Fold this sequence. Notes:
CATH class: Alpha Beta
Number of strands: 7
Oligomer: single chain
CATH topology: Heat Shock Protein 90
Amino acid sequence: MSATPLAALDLAALLCSRVCHDLISPVGAIVNGLEVLEEEKDEATKTFALDLIKKSAGTASAKLQFCRIAFGAAGSAGAQIDTGDAEKISRGFLEDEKTKIDWKLPRVLMAKNRVKLLLNLLLIAGQTIPRGGQLTVEPVGSGDAMGFTVRSTGTNAKIQPAVAALLAGETGSDGLDAHRIQPFYASLLAKDCGVKTAVAVDGEAVVITAH
């Protein structure tokens, strides 16, 4: 099914909804922690609340830094982004006790939208291993036209058919909402970069390629 035309205002609104959805949990936890600090007298409970605030603030900061580049302007038109910075914010956002990143891209300056595409594909790949695992990022080619492969490996790794279709630029009969907009946005970035994306299942891994 071909892609449905999407007005710029609708795209902006859906992406904003997606970012708000990601941030609502850690920000809400910060608010709850502050309320506990104000109301509780028990020192152990106050210490727990303070730890919750610190952890949630760190999570919110990591998500904001990632979303700023993945979805935001992140510089003027034609700007380039250091892939080392992309690696740093990706680790801050996606790595935890269950999920690790094996980053094999060279540290270079890459066109802004190519980096945005990479981060969006990493986000999609991370969602294919809900129980955790490893995300491996490797280059395809070199120079200004360098593409990349993102391999997610973990127990029951799988990608939903709807996500694969959205990544190909197809909206399907269900249309777009805040949950479906991100892979569709990745398809727009791929088109802008003049690259094609492909999704394949390889044993216990999901492989997403853009080149």
